[in-house]
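Q: What would this complex look like in 3D?
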Amino acid sequence: MLSDNTIAIIDYGMGNLRSVEKGFQKIGANVVITNDHQSLKNADKIVLPGVGAFKEGMENLKKLKLIELLEEEVIEKKKFFLGICLGMQLLGRKSYEIEETPGLNWVDGDVVKFNDKELKVPHVGWNNIALTGKNCLFQNVPDQADFYFVHSYYFKPGTKYAASLTNYGVEFVSSVNKENIFGCQFHPEKSQKFGLEILKNFANLKNGN
Amino acid sequence: MKFCTKCVMPDTKPDLHFDDKGVCDACRSQEAKNDRIDWEKREKEFLSIVDKYKKNTDYDCVIGVSGGKDSTYIVIKVLELGLNPLCVCFEPTIPTKVGRKNLDNLNGLGVDLIHVKRNPVVYKKLAKEAIKRVGDPEWQNHLGIFTIVPHFAIKFNIPLIVWGESPQIEYGGPAASKGRDVLDRQWLEEFGGLLGNRISDMIGVEGLRKKDLSLYFYPEEEDIKRVGVTGLFLGYYFKWDLREILAKSRSYGFSTTVRPVETTYENFENLDCYSNHLHDYMKYLKYGFGRATDNACLDIRLGYISREEGVRLVNKYDGIPPRKAISEYLKYTGFSAEELQGILDSFTNKKIFKRNGTREFLKDIDGSLIRKEEYVVR
Amino acid sequence: MLKHRLIPCVLLKDWQLVKSIQFDSYRTIGHPTTTVRVYNARNVDELIVLDIDASIKGEEINTEIISDMADECFMPLTIGGGINSIEAIYTVLNAGADKISINSKAIENQNFIRESANIFGSQCVVCSIDVKKINNEYTVYNKEKGGIDIHPLTLAKEYESMGAGEILLTSVDHEGTQQGYDLELLNQFKDQLRIPIIINGGMGRPEHGVQAIQNGADALAAAYIFHFSQYTPAQIKEELCKCNIPVRSSI
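A: Here is my prediction, written as structure tokens for the whole assembly.
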């Protein structure tokens, strides 16, 4: 039952919390916005949203001492995790935004900027995803469905954990999945019907999926 | 919130304009009705239009009826003019006994009546979505009564549809709608009170398919043209006075209720359906005025009551939650009381009604919301 | 591929949503909750709401209605009207908006755009320019101040250099007329900016949208056609699709 488990949305000062909360509430999940360690430990699933700068994101996580906690809850205890937008980028090895900054390094791949000489940057608007294969996060979501993107940096392709790719001048990774870890570059909470479907699929994940 | 200086209509009514004397355009429209319209000329116009449009050898026109005082009056009038109408009734959401009695009475005046018992499963899905989406439990009925009539006009090859009052003349409306004596698809889309929702937007709701909704789609343009369907407002050609209409209908067997209908002070309108009372109440929640205000304004404009009396009536009757209607509505839809309250709250006007510290709406012991001082009509 | 967007653009006045006709008179669209719920059901791509009470009457920004709308809005929501300080932007974003639209303040002080873009990111900052033809010349227009002696493209380029994320370009003359977008105006902007242009004012039929995109618009804003005509967003998108214009479909 959706209402049986609690999804914790991490508040690390990088915005975007309310719409993610509303999205999960719309599909019937129990959510709590927090950065309290105990609450995160008690939650069944964890969501890391965020818009803004990579460096600031990593620093804020460090300040709140969340990195060790997340490693414990997600890597060791295998809790389901969803990173959205900046939250997905932080999963990478490092970012080249302003200066080289290491990320959580849970998924291999670097984060680089779109070429603003050739493209309008940021990449903002609805763009389609090409699924790399069947994935439980995309159940009931057709291949080539459109989602809402707004970002200037992207996850370089090459990782075998890419769940979907998108094209904007270059091909980039629009979502990832490594075991219990998921990430979406797009904003499911702003992507209407199919976006809500993704949130529902995440909320419904059970161990053994 | 400003109120008309002549009647008691507030400026929250969508598209109502007040002139520099503070009088609303519905009042001005009524004045025009009394002073500036040559009703004899209009009656002649009406008869010549009927003559012109007559195509079907048996029926002269189609009339959408409910059995209410207005449709009873239209039928009486049309029969008096020597015409033979085909009547079509689109079943109400939650029919009442007195409503059914009045429909039978209308039938008994001597007309062929097609009583459309639309698919109740489809209808209920529409109703439950409509109240959540646009805050109107009668959205699908408003749509249905306007589309079913042209469908039958086409099927029976009867070009002329006779509607009743022109809402824009009686109640005021956007400038673009004035002087429009014809109800066509464009009218329906712009002024029919569909609140921006289209029937095509309902496809997919609880599995509804386009073919489930064929009665609710306005007929295709080519069929309309082929038959030459045109809809007229009788209220444009004959002076409309609700109490005169009531008196006439009563003399032909129309029944009223003993007690006032919920949400207002009179006992002769919206008798045929409980869901309509909830619709009127939701109008109150959204805009701060309900059926009692509508009735008082008409009575003032027609000269039956003074503005002072109108103010008293509005303060006494507007906004009392319709308990019976709500109870019937809950039975009909299967919503829980909490679910319905949640829907009502989401449409309640936060500017007009008082709330407490935790942002909940304050209520009196009878369940009515409390208006902020500056929003009480005086 | 990035899709062209269809965006209802409506005004908030006295706690109701309205649309204007040539910036002069208003027609009611309806209750904010109703309207947003209907838009959700229709799969439009974004929603722009401009609070004219805040902008014209100088009233405080109506955060409650913004939150109510944002709570129902599972697509990007842009709020404008009365945004004249960094605090105002915080207020609006905290209430649930995704982007903000700046108009008068940007004309007054272009540095405000740079400041806002630095703090909140360019993607969050939409600059709104209203245009009127005066003496046969396109000129920037402000409801209170009237014509402002600057060509809209010049102003747009300055905004772009300051970090604006998008330009919302409204033709005052075409607004509410349903006669089509101002293609001549669009042509002057074609290929001149690196940031997206959302054209606003005049859409009466789906073909108008096709013409606007073919003349350089990136996204289409409209109000009349969604509320007072029989055309649905789905039909408009169908028309765009037929002309090979990439749009999001709801399948």
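A: To summarize the key features: Chain C has a mean pLDDT of 88. The CA atoms of residues 86 and 130 of chain C lie 22 Å apart.
Q: Very helpful, thank you.
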